[in-house]
């Protein structure tokens, strides 16, 4: 199998799904602008745009990392507690002294990286499903947090707080940083070998392995990067509030929301398809919906109802397309398309144990 | 690896010899459960008394029932994250609508069952016809339902159903010789479990497993996938409803009752050796998973572990248990699956020989033009999806 054709096809698919997400975003913005106008406010005022972009940044960091993991056909439910943990580590180490900032950043990113490494190793070496593995590590971190921190802790110096507070015009610095990370991850996915391998392993682990890819490494790298970007979200929250807090993650419900944003961005939960820009689009949709609801002063409990409906409806709009797009890649590999008759289905079923057996390592 | 596979048969000899047909290859959960129960009994001998033990079963009943419902969804290849919210919603509905009026109990119970069925129907139809991943659908349902319930109650505890209704969750048949009291929850759990086992053995139940194992072959063999899938979601929502009815009596009415049940249920099911991604697992093992999880909590309590470390220990145990069954039992299952179609004697060659031989033979069938194995690519890639997604 040549590498050129799948790359070309994937690039086309990526453009496709990003485009659909973009259209969905434009529709959401249009509806939001109209709704906001009905209560006599301007959706496009600089203040409102700043609010939306600010709302995007934290979830954006988490969702960018989550994209990498989902592309590998895994999940990361531990981000919730990684966020809280990194905010606490950073705030405690800074202790109000600007000189400690580099150390604090290195420590919290390092710890997050180690957690990601543990996740990746559990998923790849112990063969534990990503859902369960990260649920487990998340619970372990939660136990650590609950036992060692009673409440907010640490003190973030003013220099670091500026990151969360300042902006260039209507664009907050935090959002610029988030977009910079998105560019880096995009370059990583589209330009590096490991990035390509992430798509390959997520699309079909067996095929990837038979093509000579060491399937464990991309998954581990994705988990490490995911935890580190969750740590960035934690750092940002710490810089905004000035302290570390063991409930930062749980307050935002970032584990499930980030997965929802990733799927909203057109990335397949089964892995192998998707892009960072789609995810950013998904995060933007969330931010716009949230913003419109807070401008219109919707009851906070009703917000969840609307959020749930928006998630399902938005994914429903283009989900059937994604499912359709998945097919051609498999019979495009050289095998003729199947004839769906019972007679031919039978050998297929009997061929299955052989392929399952190939999975024994 | 080889050492492990050689050890396996000798260590598990007694287990396999006793009930090879009854206990699935993934019987690890029963072993775990027995170990935990013995450990609890050693730490706290009174736990082994029948009356105490039946209390334990009563406490587990709601979790086990939710796990049984989740089992059908997971074995069919999907997720149901909305169960916790369904439990909460049902608890709040019971609290608000029944009130102190005993005569309303039955109509409201019917309403709750209907409501549960409708939630499952909506989940299933969206998954089947709008092709939205079940993870997202049920996540949306979870947010929407919880938000609606909290909006309705204003976020605070309201209502308190009549005692007659709460009796289902907390009362029981009194005056029984050995166990003193037979709680209704235990009776309901036994009935639900029996129904589930019966249902799983019927053709329809087997179709669910077939669909979870390989949707393409299930479709080729004439399954109405949408109906099978939708019914699994209805089963899970209905089981959440039953758990809600029990919890009203046991825990009272509060919007936080049922929170986190979806993850507990999934954990229990996976602990029971059911593969995420579908197609593998036994419903009794899923219920045993719930018991093992709850026994673990009880053990941690008796062992005096600070409550804050409970989560950490739970996380570690989940990972270890799943890793254990994923690495050893999977190898064994594969080995056994081979016995039927191919020849090799159990144990000796498969682990070493398999990786080299099977890709080669797979490539060969692709090359040879006249073999009728042309549709092989799709089912085998689907299989691969199951492996990567559900490699628990």
TrEMBL record, chain A:
Q: Where is the composition biased (Low complexity)?
A: 342-361
Keywords for this entry?
Cell membrane, Membrane, Transmembrane, Transmembrane helix
For this protein, the parts annotated as crossing the membrane are 19-40, 52-71, 78-95, 101-121, 128-145, 165-189, 219-239, 251-270, 277-295, 301-319
Write one Pfam family the protein is assigned to: BPD_transp_2
Protein's cellular compartments: Cell membrane
Q: Does the keyword Metal-binding apply?
A: no
Give the way it sits in the membrane: Multi-pass membrane protein
In residue numbers, the region (Disordered) covers 327-361
Q: Return the CDD domains for the record.
A: TM_PBP1_transp_AraH_like
Q: What is this protein called?
A: ABC transporter permease
UniProtKB/TrEMBL annotation, chain B:
- The primary location reported for this protein is membrane
What is the name of the protein in this document? ABC transporter permease
What ranges does the record list as Low complexity composition bias? 354-363
Q: Which domain of life is it from?
A: Bacteria
Segments of skewed composition (Pro residues): 342-353
* Residues covered by region (Disordered): 340-392
Membrane topology term: Multi-pass membrane protein
Coiled-coil-forming residues are none
State the PANTHER family in the record: ABC TRANSPORTER PERMEASE PROTEIN YPHD-RELATED-RELATED
Q: Which residues cross the membrane?
A: 27-44, 56-75, 106-129, 135-157, 178-200, 233-253, 265-292, 312-329
């Amino acid at each position: 199998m040549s590498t050129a054709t799948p790359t070309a096809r994937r690039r086309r698919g990526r453009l496709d799904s990003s485009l659909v997400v973009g259209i969905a975003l434009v529709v959401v913005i249009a509806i939001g602008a109209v709704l906001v106008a009905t209560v006599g406010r301007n959706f496009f005022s600089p203040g409102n745009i700043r609010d939306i972009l600010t709302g995007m940044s934290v979830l954006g960091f988490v969702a960018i990392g989550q994209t990498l993991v989902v592309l590998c056909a895994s999940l990361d439910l531990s981000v919730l507690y990684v966020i809280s943990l990194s905010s606490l580590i950073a705030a405690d180490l800074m202790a109000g002294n600007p000189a400690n900032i580099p150390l604090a950043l290195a420590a919290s990113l390092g710890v997050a990286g180690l957690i990601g490494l543990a996740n990746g190793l559990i998923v790849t070496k112990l063969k534990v499903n990503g859902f369960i593995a990260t649920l487990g590590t998340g619970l372990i971190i939660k136990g650590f947090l609950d036992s060692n921190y009673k409440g907010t802790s640490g003190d973030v110096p003013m220099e670091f707080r500026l990151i969360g507070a300042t902006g260039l015009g209507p664009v907050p610095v935090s959002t610029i940083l988030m977009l910079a990370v998105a560019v880096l991850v995009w370059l990583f996915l589209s330009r590096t070998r490991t990035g390509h391998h992430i798509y390959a392993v997520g699309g079909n682990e067996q095929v990837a392995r038979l093509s000579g890819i060491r399937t464990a490494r991309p998954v581990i790298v994705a988990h490490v990067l995911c935890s580190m970007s969750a740590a960035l979200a934690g750092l940002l929250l710490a810089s905004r509030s000035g302290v570390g807090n063991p409930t930062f993650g749980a307050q935002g419900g970032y584990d499930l929301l980030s997965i929802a944003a990733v799927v909203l961005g057109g990335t397949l939960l089964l892995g192998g398809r998707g892009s960072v820009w789609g995810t950013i689009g998904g995060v933007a949709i969330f931010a716009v919906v949230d913003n419109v609801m807070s401008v219109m002063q919707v009851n906070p409990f009703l917000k969840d109802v609307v959020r749930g409906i928006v998630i399902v409806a938005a994914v429903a709009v283009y989900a059937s397309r994604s499912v359709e797009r998945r097919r051609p890649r498999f019979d495009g590999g050289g095998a003729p398309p199947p004839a769906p008759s019972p007679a031919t289905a039978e050998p297929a079923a009997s061929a299955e144990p052989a392929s399952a057996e190939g999975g024994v390592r | 690896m080889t050492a492990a596979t050689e050890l396996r048969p000798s260590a598990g000899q007694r287990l396999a010899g006793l009930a090879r047909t009854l206990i699935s290859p993934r019987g690890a959960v029963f072993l775990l459960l027995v170990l935990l129960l013995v450990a609890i009994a050693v730490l706290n001998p009174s736990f082994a008394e029948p009356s105490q033990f039946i209390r334990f079963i009563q406490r587990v009943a709601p979790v086990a029932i939710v796990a049984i419902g989740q089992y059908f969804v997971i074995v069919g290849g999907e997720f149901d994250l909305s169960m916790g919210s369904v439990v909460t919603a049902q608890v709040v509905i019971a609290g608000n609508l029944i009130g102190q009026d005993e005569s309303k109990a039955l109509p409201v119970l019917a309403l709750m069952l209907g409501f549960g069925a409708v939630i499952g129907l909506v989940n299933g139809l969206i998954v089947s016809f709008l092709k939205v991943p079940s993870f997202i659908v049920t996540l949306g349902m979870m947010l929407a339902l919880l938000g609606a319930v909290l909006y309705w109650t204003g976020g605070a505890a309201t209502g308190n159903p009549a005692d007659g209704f709460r009796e289902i969750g907390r009362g029981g048949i009194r005056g029984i010789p050995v166990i003193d009291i037979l709680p209704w929850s235990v009776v309901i759990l036994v009935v639900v479990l029996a129904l589930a086992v019966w249902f799983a053995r019927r053709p329809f139940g087997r179709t669910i497993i077939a669909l979870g194992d390989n949707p393409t072959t299930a479709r080729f063999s004439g399954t109405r996938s949408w109906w099978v899938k939708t019914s699994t979601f209805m089963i899970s929502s209905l089981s959440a409803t039953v758990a809600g009815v029990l919890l009203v009596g046991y825990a009272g009415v509060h919007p936080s009752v049922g929170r986190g049940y979806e993850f507990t249920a999934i954990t229990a099911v996976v602990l029971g050796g059911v593969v995420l991604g579908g197609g593998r697992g036994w419903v009794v093992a899923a219920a045993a998973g719930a018991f093992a999880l709850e026994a673990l909590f009880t053990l941690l309590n008796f062992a005096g572990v600070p409550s804050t470390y409970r989560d950490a220990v739970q996380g570690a145990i989940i990972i270890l248990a799943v890793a254990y069954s994923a690495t050893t039992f999977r190898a064994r299952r594969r080995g056994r699956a081979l016995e039927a179609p191919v020849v090799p004697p159990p144990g000796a060659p498969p682990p070493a020989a398999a990786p080299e031989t099977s890709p080669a033979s797979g490539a060969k069938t692709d090359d040879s033009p006249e073999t009728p194995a042309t549709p092989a690519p799709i089912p085998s890639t689907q299989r691969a999806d199951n492996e990567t997604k559900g490699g628990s």
